[in-house]
Specification:
mainly alpha, Sec-indep_translocase_CS, Sec-independent protein translocase protein TatC, transmembrane, TatC
């Protein structure tokens, strides 16, 4: 594909020596690290409230199991365990809150090296990515975690003459690790339409190729779910099914992108054809042989 003089000028104007690139990188890193640090401090200050917020799905599961949600109990078995759990929660929350700022800084660093049409193509995905991550996290919080915890609560047994009492007493660190793993896994999987759409735009993928690999995608979805989720069938199936649905969404999005690209290609061809006709019409009088 040929590059127009305007696009060449655009790249040359934005090109900078190595030292300027390093200075720019340093500035973007300072903004990103500073934003994360501030978000971390805020989350650590409210760590207990955030943890109680994350326990709400466990309370819902307790209600579904016919138990009193006021009697939900989590424990920690080491003196420092709950403190480091709060630190871990603050780091996770800080990263989530600071992600839009970090993504913006990454974009601002690489944007000068992109053509205008590439920047315009990239921006929608910059906004779509955090939205899809939040959708995945919401699915975990409002539906998946209560279902998983209800499944685990159902495995308890009351003490009788014939059997010993078995009660679920999760550790604070293990519960947080479970819900953070689920949020991260679902948030990551929900990026599938974004990644495939970007690859389709740059010509690395096509809707036809995605459709042809559907069977393999289903197998890979279950394999990835087995790796990312806790080792229980409910978690694995719960992640694999949304992944398969998102794969179908990715195929549909790829088709829309290809349709839009085809329209743009046809419009360019018509424009080029019109310009050629206009050039021939302008050159026609000068090409006439005098009588």
């Amino acid at each position: 594909m040929s590059i127009s003089d305007t696009e060449k000028d655009e790249i040359e104007k934005s090109s900078a020596p190595l030292m300027e690139h390093l200075i720019e990188l340093r500035r973007r890193l300072i903004w990103s690290i500073g934003g994360f640090f501030v978000a971390f401090l805020v989350c650590f200050f409210f760590a207990k409230k955030l943890f109680n917020l994350l326990v709400i799905p466990f309370k819902w599961a307790t209600q579904w199991a016919g138990l009193d949600p006021r009697k939900v109990e989590l424990i920690y078995t080491a003196p420092q365990e709950f403190f480091f759990t709060q630190v871990k929660l603050a780091m996770f929350g800080g990263m989530v809150i600071a992600f839009p700022l970090i993504a913006t800084q990454i974009y601002k660093f690489i944007a000068p090296g992109l053509y205008k049409n590439e920047r315009n193509a990239f921006l929608p995905f910059l906004f779509a990515s955090p939205i899809l991550f939040l959708l995945g996290a919401s699915l975990v919080y409002f539906f998946f975690t209560p279902m998983v915890m209800w499944f685990f609560l159902a495995m308890q047994q009351a003490g009788t003459d014939d059997q010993v009492q078995i009660s679920l007493l999760p550790k604070v660190s293990e519960y947080l690790s479970l819900i953070m793993t689920l949020i991260f896994s679902f948030g990551l999987v929900f990026q599938l339409p974004v990644v495939t759409s970007l690859m389709t735009r740059v010509g690395m993928l096509s809707s036809k190729a995605l459709a042809e690999k559907r069977k393999w995608a289903i197998v890979i979805a279950f394999v990835v779910a087995a790796i990312l989720t806790p080792p229980d069938p409910m978690s694995q199936i719960g992640l694999a099914i949304p992944t398969i649905i998102l794969y179908e969404v990715a195929i549909w999005a790829a088709r829309l992108i290809e349709r839009d690209q085809e329209k743009q290609r046809v419009a360019r061809e018509k424009k080029d054809a019109g310009e050629k006709v206009a050039e021939k019409a302008a050159d026609a009088p000068s090409e006439q042989v005098p009588s």
